[in-house]
UniProtKB/TrEMBL annotation:
Pfam families: DNA_ligase_A_M. One of its GO terms (molecular function) is DNA ligase (ATP) activity. Transmembrane segments: none annotated. Keywords: Ligase. This is ATP-dependent DNA ligase family profile domain-containing protein. Belongs to the ATP-dependent DNA ligase family. GO terms for biological process: DNA recombination; DNA repair; lagging strand elongation. It comes from the Eukaryota. Residues 1-53 form the ATP-dependent DNA ligase family profile domain. InterPro entries: ATP-dep_DNA_ligase, DNA_ligase_ATP-dep_cent. It comes from Nymphaea colorata (pocket water lily).
């Protein structure tokens, strides 16, 4: 085990949600990730899902 798997979702309303491998919403644990995701995708996409570890 050397990382934490996460999915970052940008929803239609522009909000960012972070989910664990098991589908648990973990957004509140990653405020920096939410900020970076929000700032870097303002005009790039209406919605998206990023999957990473």
């Amino acid at each position: 085990y050397d990382g934490q798997r996460a999915q970052v979702h940008r929803l239609m309303d522009g909000s960012i949600k972070v989910f664990s491998r098991n589908g648990e919403e973990t957004t509140s644990r990653f405020p920096d990730l939410v900020k970076i995701s929000s700032e870097s995708s303002k005009q790039a996409a209406e919605t998206y899902i990023l999957d990473g570890e």
